[in-house]
Amino acid sequence: MQYIEIAIAIIGAVALAWIADLLTGRRGMGAVILVALVSAACGAFLAIRVFAVATLTDWEWLVWSLVTTVVGLAAFFLFRNKR
């Protein structure tokens, strides 16, 4: 399983998006999943390329990815347009 870390990051981001959608009572999963996946990609980029604390074969970037997913979802629900 060469890319198991990437699969875990994607599954974790989608799971966090699903939990966030359940907690907020919203019905639109598309935007929430998009925000979660983009946030996870940004966290992985920060860990691997910007701060160089991990490589793609390490597990440390996975934690960065999931933490930035939580931060991104929190910002999304905090600053979204409420009509």
**Low-pLDDT stretches:** none
Question: How many helix segments?
Answer: 3
SSE ordering: HHH
Number of strands: 0
Radius of gyration: 13 Å
In percent, how much strand structure appears in the residues?
A: under 5%
* Helix and strand composition category: mainly alpha
How is the main sheet built?
none
Q: What number of structural domains do the residues give?
A: 1
C-alpha termini separation? 46 Å
- Give the oligomeric state: single chain
Task: Estimate percent helicity.
Answer: over 70%
How would you sum up the global shape?
elongated
Mean pLDDT: 91
Describe this structure in words.
- The chain is mostly helical and 83 residues long.
- The chain has one domain (4-79).
- It is built from three helices and no strands.
- The model has no long low-confidence stretch (mean pLDDT 91).
Q: What is the secondary structure topology, with strand pairs?
A:
Layout: H1 4-24, H2 29-50, H3 60-79
Which properties best describe this structure?
83 residues, mainly alpha, 3 helices, 76% helix, 0% strand, elongated
Give a nutshell description of this structure.
The chain has one domain.
